[in-house]
Amino acid sequence: MTLSGDLWKANHDLVQACLYHPFVQGLADGSLSRECFAYYVGQDVFFLKAFARSYSIAGARAPDWDGFCTLHTLADGVLEELKLHVKYAAGWGADLVNIAPGAATRRYTDFLMATAWSCDTGITVTAMSPCMRLYAYLGQQLEKQKPSEHHYIDWIRTYSSQDFEDLAKHLEELADRYASDTQLVRATYRYAMECERDFFQAAFDSFDPSGC
User: Fold this and answer.
1) Chain centroid to CA 205: how far?
2) What's the pLDDT tens digit per position in 162-190?
3) CB of 203 closer than 8 Å to CB of 40
4) Most exposed of 57, 63, 131, 206 (fewest Cβ within 10 Å)?
5) Which of 36, 131, 195, 212 is catalytic?
6) Nearest Cα to 115, choosing from 194, 197, 65, 185?
């Protein structure tokens, strides 16, 4: 088994916690409130900007030209993802200009940026892999439920697409190439996955303390 595959398997508990989180299940059946989704979109834009910067930093520090090119291609994928969020914002009333990051968002972005600036490319791509693999997994799992046409169907289609799966695979290939199976790598991967879970929880709690 590859390192990325083993890390994914080792964090199955957090993966399932995300899949069955009420925020994600609300996306699945269309029942999530507009207010929760609008908050999520704004927070995700703030996050994705940090994610794109982390790609660029990791690319600049990549030990070979192929890694440099792949990481900048992956950064381009984030820019495309941001375009989707602009589309969402227009219809959901999300303010993408004056975004105040919540505690869970800041925790995640600070972790990514600190890792990118202070660690080698292997650790950085390990920190970024959970986001890409998790979203591909969530999109594919929700697509299997054959959702009806509802407000969040574009979200499901984006993350269940082959294009997004390919991006996730490219990032995992870099993790397999540059990272070693160390305690730091495993702790980094798990911390990022915990941040994913907490990001969904924060969005779910954003509109009503009792949930959306």
Assistant:
1) 19
2) 999 999 999 999 999 999 999 999 999 99
3) yes
4) 63
5) 131
6) 185
